[in-house]
Amino acid sequence: MRDVAQRIESAATTTTDRDRALDALRALAILGVVLGHWLVTALVADSGTVHGASPLRDLPELVPATWLFQTLAVFFLVGGVVGARSHATARARGESYGRWLRARTVRLLRPTAVLLAVWAAVAVALLASGTDQDTVRALGKLVWSPLWFVVVLMGLTAATPLVARLHPLWPFAVVLVVDLYRFGLDAPTALASVNVAAGWLVPYCLGAAWARGELCGRRTGWTLLLGGAAATAALVRWGGYPASMVGVPGTEISNLDPPTLAVVTFGLAQCGAALLLLGPLRRMLRRPVLWAGVAVLNLSAMTVFLWHQTAMIAVTALGLTAPTPLPGLHTPPDHPGWVLARLAWLPVFAVALALCRAAFHGYERRRPRGESLVVRAERPRRTAAGGV
């Protein structure tokens, strides 16, 4: 805790070379994913078995919530900025590609390995105690299914030297062609997996362009926002794409698994909105209290992402000790009352997540003393001392 406090104090008192708005965008993306999962994921207790369910299946009026909370494109946009700038910094210092990549990947792999180890032990304990396999499988799926994000981010990070100057239109064109073959010519399903890399490479390349100073100005932001929103609306209205920006159980097409052209154009709109938010965010984050909150969340970014589903599962499991199923926690998400009840549970999930953070934050990336907590505002430059 003392180390965390020192880092926050250091970040709060050094403002000349840091772009706080980028950290705020990353924090907003994290919160979007966490709240989105908590709102559209349910664990239903039925005859001694717990299984997963989604309110999106029976409550289509919740679809607009997926437009607000599906913030993955912002994750990859910021990832592109950070990856491009950190690689440029490493090159300026004469650091090898291998050393740079190890430093980046260890920060992702170490906390992920801890999560998998803990849940392997939990799964063994549950099975040994007589818990049925369907329940263990449903719980495990909630935990490991979001880990695709870590795999994709690692892949894009490793490819940063190759893609840092790649124009976003190239991966966008790949997504377009794959979707044309997939939906228009009934191509093999395996072809769609190409979009897992190409779809998220679009915002990642936009972030790299941002790092080079090529993605700036409100005109660019408005172009991405309005163009992306119009294209997404057209694809949903006339192209047959689902309106939900996440998968809905029972539907034939998921916009997210793998990414479709609709989710990519939606991501472009999100990237445009992120550019337009930079000015207001920078002004807001001059307030120490707001910046402290953003700094704390960025210090715990991977921990929050990895453990937020575990927090929900823990609260749900504890609630099973109640004599009757608790609304919004164990009941089927098939009526508006469930949504209201679930909203009341969100603060409880947040407390459980805070406990998970306290327990596992130590496994998150450890920065050398004096290293920046946040993203630098300008491209790295070699100083007389050889640093940045």
Q: In terms of topology, how is this protein built?
A:
Layout: H1 2-13, H2 20-40, E1 42-46, E2 49-53, H3 63-69, H4 72-92, H5 97-128, H6 133-144, H7 148-158, H8 160-163, H9 169-184, H10 194-211, H11 218-238, H12 261-284, H13 288-299, H14 301-319, H15 336-360
Antiparallel strand pairs: 1-2
Q: Which short descriptors sum up this protein?
A:
388 residues, mainly alpha, two-stranded antiparallel ribbon, 2 strands, globular
Provide a brief overview of the structure.
The chain is mostly helical. The chain has helices spanning 2-13, 20-40, 63-69, 72-92, 97-128, 133-144, 148-158, 160-163, 169-184, 194-211, 218-238, 261-284, 288-299, 301-319, 336-360; strands spanning 42-46, 49-53.
Beta fraction: under 5%
Q: What's the number of extended β-strand segments?
A: 2
* Largest β sheet strand count, sense and barrel closure: 2 strands, antiparallel
Query: In what order do the strands lie side by side in the largest sheet?
Result: 1-2
Cα end-to-end separation? 27 Å
Rg is 21 Å
* Spans of at least 5 consecutive residues with low confidence: 368-388
The total domain count is: 1
Give the helix level as a range of percent. Answer: 55-70%
Mean pLDDT: 86
Tally the helices: what do you get?
15
- The shape, in one word, is globular
